[in-house]
Amino acid sequence: MTHEIVHRPYPRGRNRNSPRTRAVAIEGRCGEGRRVQALMAAFCAFLVFLFLMFANAAHADEASVRAIISKFADAEGFSQVEKVIDELAATGDPLAVRTLNALNDGKLQVKRGGTVYIEENGKFLDPITGEPVDGADTSGLDKVKIKNSLRRTISAALSGMTLMAKDPAIRSQAASTIFDSSDASQLEALEKALAAETVPSIREQMEEAKASIQLFNSNDPAEVSTALGTIKARGNRAALALLSKYAASADGELKEQADAAISSVEETLSMWEAGQNVWYGISLGSVLFLAAIGLAITFGVMGVINMAHGEMVMLGAYTTFVVQELIRTSAPGLFEYSLLIALPMAFLVAGGVGLLMERSIIRFLYGRPLETLLATWGVSLILQQAVRTIFGPTNREVGNPDWMSGAFTLGEMSLTWNRVWIVCFSLAMFVALQFVLKKTYFGLQMRAVTQNRRMASSMAIRTPWVDAMTFALGSGIAGLAGVALSQIDNVSPNLGQSYIIDSFMVVVFGGVGNLWGTLIGAFTLGIANKFLEPYAGAVLGKILVLVFIILFIQRRPRGLFAQKGRAVEA
Amino acid sequence: MIFGHFLKQGLASRYVQVAVLILLAVAVMVPVLNLAVPPGNPFHLPDHWVPLLGKYLCYAMLALALDLVWGFCGILSLGHAAFFALGGYAMGMYLMRQIGSRGVYGNPVLPDFMVFLNYKELPWFWYGFDNFWFAALMVVAVPSLLAFVFGWLAFRSRVAGVYLSIITQAMTYALLLAFFRNDMGFGGNNGLTDFKEIIGFDVSAGSTRLGLFVATALFLIASLVIISSVVASKYGKILVAVRDAEPRTRFIGYRPENVKLFAFVLSAAIAGIAGALYVPQVGIINPGEFAPANSIEVVVWTAVGGRGTLVGPILGAILVNAGKSWFTGVLPEFWLFALGGLFIFVTLFLPKGILGLIGQVKASARARREKRAAEQQVLAE
Known about the structure:
The complex is a heterodimer of chains A (570) and B (381).
Chain A: E1 7-8, H1 19-29, H2 35-54, H3 62-69, H4 77-91, H5 97-104, E2 108-111, E3 115-120, E4 123-125, E5 142-143, H6 148-161, H7 168-181, H8 187-196, H9 200-217, H10 221-234, H11 237-249, H12 252-302, H13 309-330, H14 338-360, H15 369-391, E6 407-410, E7 413-416, H16 417-439, H17 441-451, H18 453-458, H19 463-485, H20 495-510, H21 515-536, H22 538-555
Helix pairs in contact in A: 1-2, 2-16, 4-6, 5-6, 7-9, 8-9, 9-10, 10-11, 10-12, 11-12, 12-16, 12-19, 12-20, 12-21, 13-14, 13-15, 13-19, 13-20, 14-19, 16-17, 16-19, 17-19, 20-21, 21-22
Chain B: H1 2-10, H2 14-36, H3 49-73, H4 80-99, H5 112-116, H6 132-156, H7 161-180, E1 192-193, E2 197-198, E3 201-202, H8 206-232, H9 234-244, H10 246-252, H11 256-282, E4 284-285, H12 292-305, H13 311-330, H14 335-349, H15 353-380
Antiparallel strand pairs in B: 1-4, 2-3
């Protein structure tokens, strides 16, 4: 199944000070102990912000607009046409804009019985979509006649639908259309809308649109100069295009000013590009973090590198697939919640397999980390082949629920929803794990075993039980990661293999002292990778990162956040 | 004199003696069974078996090389296939240059893939590979140099255990990615293939293949004797000391990093030779050989045969690969189940591998015999 990309216009003006950036700033000021709380607050704030983004007014649907448009065919005389225009204006739906424009230009052709076409260069177009109509019945068509008073009604209706629409998103859209076209005929309507506008961010957009008109149509140098300033402040690609166009025809002082504005906009744009790269890096980092965090826990407590960790991620992804299949066949209505249902299932499946593995194999191999590495590799081969036998070797289709698909723009950056949610999810996971480790009794036992196994055992901590539970927890988390990764990667038996080396790198780079190492390691590697990509290419960038890690390990053989104490050498 | 001492030291172990004899017999018998016994006779060895057996012996050599570092020095390298593949690439480059103007594009200097990728002239690192001696030198030099640099860095900063395993894996993974790139000048993901001749002999001719097989067997015997001798020497004792108690060895006054480095470089050189012998027999070398999974598989062969026994890894490599050939022919879906199961079984129940099992059985038999003798003595008294 396919999903169309939905653009959700983002209200400008909030960009610079989004809850997320503010929360990050808070985090920077907080001390070690308050980081978790700050992160949690950031996360909640971010959730609220995401929720607000969804708020989007509904429009009248296409069918009802079409019904009204078809009334033009049977309208007798100017007064009835005016009535239909008023009716269209009342819907406030921008779908009618094309028809009204055509009416204004005298291009609307009708026939009794409800047939309405837009005639353009001898072609007959659909009044709403503007697509040519195949086999249009062109006999007996009549042009809808209008007069000047009707033109005023139409223009009022148009600006009411666009610049004066109730929905702020449509007003914003209309303003940016005018900005791009610099259409002088819209100036009057624009000024009227500007006077009525109350939302500051849309006001700003309208001012910019006005500046765009003035730039090309005003003869007053002072006005043009202010317009240049306004457009420069907008600082996006559209502004750059306008400024370049203007600079090409301008001369004298104004050209100098335009050139300065262009370079300033280019600077802004390159900042945005860097921002986009940081975002890609954060996104890659969150994926690496998800893949590595479970590994870091098992490695930290047991000193065992679990080579089957990637397969736990794969099991999580396949659990998502199975859950979605069950939903499709028995309860299609639940599809939007499939991922939420899959999360606990994946945790149980992967955690269960992990527990089984620990009880049946790994517990016999304690104190022999290299042998454990080999045995878990054997398990990974078996799990891979088992999945291949059951589900087949090809990719399985895991669908994105609506809230995971599409993209939105933030300034000049484009963010896809699935990536945004995965970043949120990885941070949530981090917070939850920190909570488990620092605030629960089980976490206390785990930390005790990590620091000094024999002493913990003397203190009546059942270390074998802690080992088993830790391994199950680490595997379960890998399963959760699998649910998230099923949204952005191919679900195939090789899914785990593609993450295992990267997650090793994150763990050895970050060290196993605490989870911060994994978090910082993952995001550092992710961002470094994405910043190297434009210069070195994707593959070479990755090679450079690997070489960097190999060299880094020479300096700090136990990673960024090394475990300290006597137990380390054991 | 020194050579004699060396040989004596190398052949001191009973296992090594037996293995050398068997390998010599194989080196003689395979050509005999292939050429002298007429087709149709049940003892005839079909032609396609010769390169297959040669391939097994190359793998055996690789496993042997790994056993030197893992079995005797405790360095679990998860990147040994990288040295193997580098040796293979050096040989492959020589074989590519030997094609000359017989390639599809008929360019006398540039190999086909370079013509295809619009190379104007030969990259500098391909110079000299038209000479066999140079290629042979590179087969040993390139893996050794990589092992030297890598080992010097890693051992000096005391990276050990799981961390070392992971960065060796990172090394082979980085090489995998690098060799997949077309602009590296090594043929990208197609690798090097379509070889015509080696030192003037047709690569696909039966006699050349037999020659290569015998050469592989002899190189394997030589490496076995060399490693066995190294292990039996005073240096070998220090090597084992480093494996078992590195800090203690350091406090006595040895430098564990140098001890490890020598073993690592020697092992890489042998792995490189194995790779060089492998390429003309299978007829292709591509970046897939660098895959981390390959290196891990080498570890399985070694573990199955018996880590730290030298002969065990040879046995393990041959058995596991023969099993793989059989499985992929008969039950292709089950090979990974079998391999994974073998991994688990060996680590859980045969920590010393097949040869270790034989040793254990012998030891317990001796213990029983001694016990019985002691009991009889008591009874007699």
